[in-house]
Amino acid sequence: MSVSSLGFAVRSLRRSGGFTATAVVTLGLAIGAATAVWSVVDALLLRPLPYRDPDRLVFISSELPRGGYRHAPLSGPEIADLRERSRTLAAVAGLWPTTGALVEDGQPRPISLGLATANLFTLLGVEPAAGRLFVTEDEGVGAPPRIVLGHAMWRERFGADAGVVGRTLRIDGGWGFGGGSFTVIGVAPASLLLALPADAGVPPTLDAWIPFTGDLRDGPRSQYFLRTLGRLRDGVEPQEAAEEVHAIGLQVESEHEEYAATGRGF
After folding, report:
1. Which of 98, 107, 157, 213 is the most exposed place for a label (fewest CB within 10 A)?
2. Can you say whether the dihedral through the CA atoms of 164, 121, 140, 114 is positive or negative?
3. For residue 247, how many C-alpha atoms fall within 13 Å in the half-sphere facing its CB?
4. Per-residue pLDDT at 257
5. Pairing of β 227-232 and β 89-104
């Protein structure tokens, strides 16, 4: 560009300052939006999922056609049904996203929580960034209250200090979760990303994880809240598992009269 052309451009911008500012801001917003969209596409669609053998993972939902739901959660007894009857699934895990508050010095700070079956991290095939993740003994009636921190919360609130493992944190609960004092046993890896279907209602990352301390098998069959994941056995194709899970759903529906009004299936 020549000096005269540059001078003309500068004078033009001065005369239309408002338009120029608007254009610059609009361009900045567009670039920011495009960057954000690209980040999501890159994380969810282009990069391999950060799990062991991710092509063996499946999302299991139930159908409530009379209620208009195609991807409804499952209940605790239904997860037990799948674990006991499936020959195509090596493991089945459930999680429930909810909220709570981390209480320090009497001040509550809202956090997102994932209440999960103890085998969730094992099913995904992830390793801890510090400490350990859940084991079978961490779940169920009488299990001591334990918590795994999400990586972002560990870094932002605790400075990525591995010394937080073993500390006791006070977590106040919200709907359906009573809260209490929990011992930190580990930290989830930074790569942990929950790429579940949008209508599952599960955010990609959570601040902390707590294992279920009740017996899910004894819960009401009509209490649908568990987002359910499965891992296929070696040699099993997804379609084969889908057909088996559907058949199990029909069996369960025929065995329990409370399903008659829902037309429920897996």
Report:
1. 107
2. positive
3. 10
4. 82
5. antiparallel
Over residues 76-97, the pLDDT tens digits come to: 999 999 999 999 999 999 999 9
For the four alpha carbons of 35, 36, 39 and 45, in that order, the dihedral sign comes to negative
| HEC per residue, 71-87 | EECECHHHHHHHHHHCC
Q: How many CB atoms lie within 10 A of CB 132?
A: 15
Pairwise CA distance, residues 111 & 93, whole Å: 23
| Unique residue bearing structure tokens 């944190």 | 169
Q: What is the pLDDT of residue 12?
A: 47
Label residue 15 exposed, middle or buried (CB < 10 Å: 0-12, 13-18, 19+): exposed
Q: What is the mean pLDDT of residues 188-207?
A: 92
Round to whole Å and give the CA distance between 200 and 2: 58
Helix (H, G, I), strand (E, B) or coil at 45: helix
Longest dimension (CA), the chain: 86
pLDDT confidence band for 67 (50 / 70 / 90): low
Token representation of residue 243: 């057909």
Section 198-225 average pLDDT: 91
